Amino acid sequence: MKIILTHEVSGLGAAGDVVDVKDGYARNYLVPRGFAIRWTKGGEKDVAQIRRARKIHEIATIEQANQIKAQLEAVKVRLAVRSGDSGRLFGSVTPADIASAIKTAGGPEVDKRRVELGSPIKTLGSHRVSVRLHPEVAATLGVEVIAA
């Protein structure tokens, strides 16, 4: 099935790309979550609009991405969450929580879709988080989860 990506999907493409995927993947995952729309002849106008919006929010050069990477890696991110006596969290830390914690810690504004968690953060302590700034540049930063 041919689809137009509306958001960046790891391993598949960036917003505005026209890709061919299996029918079930598109129908059951990408389209319901708003990551893609079905490709039509009239959809070509949407592709141009999505690409313009992507250019506005995109980090243009590798040098700019490296500067933001240096800023991110210098920031100490602490996130206060509710937890039980054993150190387990009530729920988990989401990429949106991390993006807002980076902003409040004085770091650059980061889109929550660029924050990649290896596994869900469900315990107190120090965790490593990756932020994909550019296809060739990713920043790794430490997030300290503390009890609120």
Automatic annotation (TrEMBL):
<keyword id="KW-0694">RNA-binding</keyword>
<dbReference type="InterPro" id="IPR000244">
    <property type="entry name" value="Ribosomal_bL9"/>
</dbReference>
<dbReference type="GO" id="GO:0005840">
    <property type="term" value="C:ribosome"/>
</dbReference>
<dbReference type="InterPro" id="IPR020594">
    <property type="entry name" value="Ribosomal_bL9_bac/chp"/>
</dbReference>
<dbReference type="InterPro" id="IPR036935">
    <property type="entry name" value="Ribosomal_bL9_N_sf"/>
</dbReference>
<comment type="similarity">
    <text>Belongs to the bacterial ribosomal protein bL9 family.</text>
</comment>
<dbReference type="InterPro" id="IPR020070">
    <property type="entry name" value="Ribosomal_bL9_N"/>
</dbReference>
<keyword id="KW-0687">Ribonucleoprotein</keyword>
<dbReference type="InterPro" id="IPR036791">
    <property type="entry name" value="Ribosomal_bL9_C_sf"/>
</dbReference>
<keyword id="KW-0699">rRNA-binding</keyword>
<keyword id="KW-0689">Ribosomal protein</keyword>
<comment type="function">
    <text>Binds to the 23S rRNA.</text>
</comment>
<dbReference type="InterPro" id="IPR009027">
    <property type="entry name" value="Ribosomal_bL9/RNase_H1_N"/>
</dbReference>
<dbReference type="Pfam" id="PF03948">
    <property type="entry name" value="Ribosomal_L9_C"/>
</dbReference>
<protein>
    <recommendedName>
        <fullName>Large ribosomal subunit protein bL9</fullName>
    </recommendedName>
</protein>
<dbReference type="Pfam" id="PF01281">
    <property type="entry name" value="Ribosomal_L9_N"/>
</dbReference>
<dbReference type="InterPro" id="IPR020069">
    <property type="entry name" value="Ribosomal_bL9_C"/>
</dbReference>
<feature type="domain" description="Ribosomal protein L9">
    <location>
        <begin position="13"/>
        <end position="40"/>
    </location>
</feature>
